[in-house]
Amino acid sequence: MKTVKDIMSTNCATVTTKDNVYEIAVKMKQFDTGFIPVVEDNKLIGVVTDRDIVIRGIAEKREGSATVEQVMSKAIQCVEPSASVQDAAKMMAQKQIRRLPVCENGQFIGVVSLGDLAVFEKSDEAAGQALSDISVNKNPAGIG
């Protein structure tokens, strides 16, 4: 049985609370992503999505110098790397999230995404069902 550790991405861009919205946007462009974990001492304290920047940043008329804390999402679901891919897929489907941070002993170590599940999906029905459920019932926030 494959685990989250087998399919997760580990080369993730991150920011800290010392960064600002402009710096987040630059990292999103540089890494071609709409999801950036916020870490302090390797501990996940939140995430910033492109939607967070739009809703909590631009729509609130915040400057590019607005702090990470002003736009980040704090209620974050995590999964252990030892969890099965099926369990991660179920969690993502139930919570309607597209990206799920992976934490081990409180430390951020990676992200499992719908793309990771899509690759695995060909050999696993549960992961495929989660992918289908998330795609059909889109989470407008896309928060993970």
Automatic annotation (TrEMBL):
Residues 8-63, 72-128 form the CBS domain. The keyword Ubl conjugation does not apply. InterPro entries: CBS_dom, CBS_dom_sf, Diverse_CBS-Domain. PANTHER family: CBS DOMAIN-CONTAINING PROTEIN, CBS DOMAIN-CONTAINING PROTEIN CBSX3, MITOCHONDRIAL. The lineage of its organism: Bacteria, Bacillati, Bacillota, Bacilli, Bacillales. Keywords: CBS domain. This is CBS domain-containing protein. Transmembrane segments: none annotated. It comes from the Bacteria.
